[in-house]
Each structure stands twice: as C-alpha cells, then as structure tokens.
Amino acid sequence: MSYFADKQDLVADIFSRYPDSPQGRRSGLMPLLREVQDAEGFVTEERMHEIAALCGTTATEVRSVMSFYSTYHTVPTGKYHLQVCSTLMCALAGSDELWDELVTGLDVQPGEVSPDGRFSVQKVECLGSCGTAPVIQINDDGFYENVTPTKCRHLLAQLRADHKPEPDNLVPVKVNNQGLQMMANGQNAGASGEVLRPLSSSELPPKPEVKG
Ligand code: FES
Fold first, then answer.
1. What's 107's domain CATH number?
2. Does one domain contain both 96 and 160?
3. What percent of the chain has pLDDT over 90?
C-alpha cells in the first residue's frame, strides 16, 4: 500500500523547498525518507521504490543514500535504539567494552530487536562529541556522554523500567516540522529557502592569487 498516495500536500510542500528541476526533485529524497522513518520506524524496500519514483531516481540510489547515514534504518528498531560511537576517540575511551556490555547484557545483535521490543543496538561513526567520549546516542534524542561501564549499567536498568534518563546533551541539530534545521535550544540553525539567495559578486571572497 502506498504511503504517500493520500499525502499529496505533504509531498508538494517538501518539493516546494527545492528548485523545480530534476536535481531539485532528487533533493526531496532525504525529507521523504525522514517522513517515512518517523511514521513507520524504518524504511522498507517498497517505500524506497515509492520515494525513488517521486524523486525521479532509482531504489538503488535511495538505498545508497540511506546506507551513508546511520540515522536511517531498513529494519525495525527497538523502543530504545542504542547507538554506540565506535570511532577512534570513543574506541580509545572504552567504547568496545561498552559495546560488549550492551550486546551481552541485552542479548541482542545489530539488526535484531530484544524479545521485549525495548532494545536494539548499532555501532555508529563519530557523533561529534569526541571531548566527552565514549558517547552513546539513544534514538534521535540525545547523547549520553563519558559513559563508564557503571553509567552504562545504570542507564540500561532505567531503560528496562522505561525511565529514560535525560540525556547529557540533546542531539545538536534537529529538523522541525517545517523542514528547517534547529538547535536543541529551539533556534533555527540555518535559513529557509525564502531568505537564501545567491551571493552578489561584491560579497564573494577575493579570488586567490595565482603565483608563478
Ligand atoms: S569519536 Fe566518538 S564522538 Fe567523536
């Protein structure tokens, strides 16, 4: 069954943010993916084909965009999707041990959901909070920082009781329902298509001098 068939206004709104051109249409790919994932929790092959048709591209390209961003899922995730940063700073600070603690403690592997539906796990690349390594992100909500094995066990105990603790920091940039990026404090992080404009020649930086 089509997801977007009865959401033509939403689709039109998403495409209105981009130039009316084949390239502009393809720019709608990520917001369409986000829409499906927020509504259904993951993006099936069928949805990839639907998004590809809307954007004038192929399902293979949709999948390839998804594979670049750990935020998109092709399989269902648990109520608490634990993403462990496995890049260098976090690895040096003990993220491998954290990962072992999670997969053994929860008895769940990447791509699986624990039998009670609560947990899924994923290794991700740098979450941009290297100074507070090791870092775990839960869902799209926030970062848990300087996660020692004790802090990890405490976190899991609270999640098992469905008492998700407040994150140490919110995910810094979210996308609001107008499709605009905003900071955790609610300020817009970018500009809307209405105020963006090409720079005039007087605003462009000087061209570098070519020597020799
Ligand atoms: S290396 Fe883990 S947040 Fe950067």
1. 3.40.30.10
2. yes
3. 75
